[in-house]
Each structure stands twice: as C-alpha cells, then as structure tokens.
Amino acid sequence: MTKRKVFISYRRDDAAGFSNAIHDRLVEHLPKDQVFMDVLGIEPGADFVKKLESTVDNCDVLLALIGKRWAGEDGTGRGRIHDPQDWVRVEIAAAIRRGVRVIPVLLDGASMPKAESLPEDLRPLVRMNATDVRSSRLNADVWDLTGSTIGALGGKWPPDEPGGKIYAVITSIYALFAGAVVLFVMLASLFMTEVAMSTLLGALLFVLNSVLLLRLPVHHWVRTLTRQRALTIGSIIHLVAFAVMSAGATGVDGVIVFVFGIVPAASLYLSSFAMKRLVRS
Question: What's the confidence (pLDDT) of residue 120?
Fold first, then answer.
C-alpha cells in the first residue's frame, strides 16, 4: 500500500456514533494518523474548501457515511447538501473529482439518494457500489467494511495475527479431542442401553467449542473473534462442558478431572496469554 490513508466523511447530526465505531476499528489495523475523520484546526481566515480538498487528495479511500439525515435538512425544504459550502458536499465532490476511491456506507437502513436529488458534482456517487452498516449487527458490518477498506488500499484481509502457529496447533489438537469424545460417545451408545443426557450435552458443548476455536463462519460473532479472545472463551466453555459431562458419570476420579478437564482448559488459557504477549510485543 502506498499512502494507506482513509478519509471518513460524515454529518455529525446524522452519523456521529457510527463514525466513531468505524474509526476505532480502522485504527486497529492502520496507523492512527492515517485515518482522518475530522478536519480540525483550520485557522481563521483560511480557505476551508481548499483545506478539505487538499486533505482528501492525500487519501486513497473516502468512506461516505450516509444516514437518513445525510442530506442535511436546512429548514427550507432543500438539503444542506445543495450548498456549495457544505462540508460533506465539498469532501465527497473533491474525492470524486480527484479520482479517490469512494465507498458509500448506508447506515441503519438508509437508502442511496436518487441522482436527481443530488447536486451535479455528487451524482456519480449513486453509481458506486455501497455497503451496509446496521446497529443490529454493528460489529460484523464494521468488520466487513474494514476488510473492504483495507482491500481497497491494496492490503491483505483478514490481516495476519501474531502467534498463528501456536493457534493452529492448539486448535487442531482440540478439534481432534472433541472428535474423539464424540466417537467415544457413539461407541458407548452401541454397547450401553442408555447414554446419560449430560454426556450427550457435554459432547455437544465440546463440538461447539471446537467450532468457536476454529472460528468457522457459522455466525458473524464467531467470525469476528480475535484468536486471543477465542482461546480465552474456549477455555471457559471447556470447563463448563467437562463439568456437565462429569455430572452424569460415575467413577470420575482426580486423574480424569486433571487430564481431561484442567489440562485442556489450562492449555487454551495459557495459549491465549501467550498470544496476548505476542500482540503487545
């Protein structure tokens, strides 16, 4: 990536909360000084239009956050977006004119404005492919938007995370462990008249835990988990699953508790701690 700079264009009374969430996620993957959200400190007497155009020109991507009040009703029935001095109009028009990549972001069910409702210099905006960000799935939508933005900058998504080898090994071992538990329960059901419900529930929890640890795309919440977070949660779920399975079993001694309960949970948690240290370093 050459410039790696992003400009977030938004109207404060329309998208302030969304802009902060998007900004915070972007600065997790880009240097903070390369994500512009507000042009502050324009000295008195300066030409703010030229300042905005200059700032936009130094960016590679502009995110145009469009909420339901994006046009900016001014009390006359005509939106502020038609004012040549409107900041939002200046930002987006400058990006379009200078060939900056513009990604329209439709917020909470807002629709793309019609071309005839826009000033001439903003009409190309309606031809650009938009993405949605909804409060009901904010984390997942912002994650996807971050990926689109990084991709538009020429970067890799999802980014490489420190400790990839540690994570791959520990999750693979756990997946084998969960599979072995399921196989054991299936074999037991062939030779026993009845398998305890707690045993079946515990086995199911082990399988679900392995799905979480592998971060399989079964739900947007799982998909957006960091590796370190997945390991931390996984260690807790493992203890719960083992406790559930042990509740309906007889003859569970200290060795079984240590080998199949404490050791796997401790391995997951210590791996999480190691990855946290790697991220900080």
Answer: 95
